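hey so u asked for the seq, here:
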Amino acid sequence: MPRVISVHSYRGGTGKSNFTANLATTIALQGHRVGVVDTDIQSPGIHNIFGLEAETINKTLNNYLWGQAAISDAAYNVSETIKLPGEGKIFLVPSSVKADDISRILSEGYDVKLLNDGFRKLVKDLQLDYLFIDTHPGLSKETFLSIAISHVLILIIRPDKQDYQGTAVTVDVARQLKVKKMLLVVNKVLKSLSFEDLKHKIEAAYELPVAGVFPLTEEVIQLASNGVFCLQYPHHPVSQEFLKVAQEIIN
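ran it, structure tokens below
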């Protein structure tokens, strides 16, 4: 049965979209068919990481939500764009970056049930093994209704007091929604900190497993979302940490 994975954070700037793109790619490298949906409709951007230029995007998630296109027609095979080796595939459903479209979503909202129906349709049409949902940061009805249908919820957290407090609230709400499985990922950690101590501290605080601890590295900053990190630096410790998290999802 295909698995649906939501990647979420309480605040922006946690590296959520970069994480989603790299984890999805790492799983596709294992030979799987992977879909990614950018539901961060208010501030879309994951298409940049996958090398999908805005001017080449004709249909988006917005068009599906407005009844203008089937969701599968808004799915782009980015496997060739990022030069993905092997038999795996990645399909991306981007959100519109047009100011008018973003403004319309902000003023009108959208039908979350239609969105969730679209997820199921996408999995079936593209015969996906995994579907990743890149969510909008923060707490909202739309975000949590999507999270509720997920098999796995990954929460991105930085070693920051605001992140700690916001993640605690997010975890409580997710538990009320009876999310099947939750994993924590700690991102942008200074190399001077003890990763193992930080991992144990966070696991004890939230009573949840930490699937990965990612350092703040110069190579990630230099790449600046211009490509998928694990493809450009396959032997880097960060890429190895993505592989570790991928195995947790696959298993």
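The chain has one domain: 3-250. Residues 3-250 form a domain with the Rossmann fold fold (CATH 3.40.50.300).
lmk if thats what u needed
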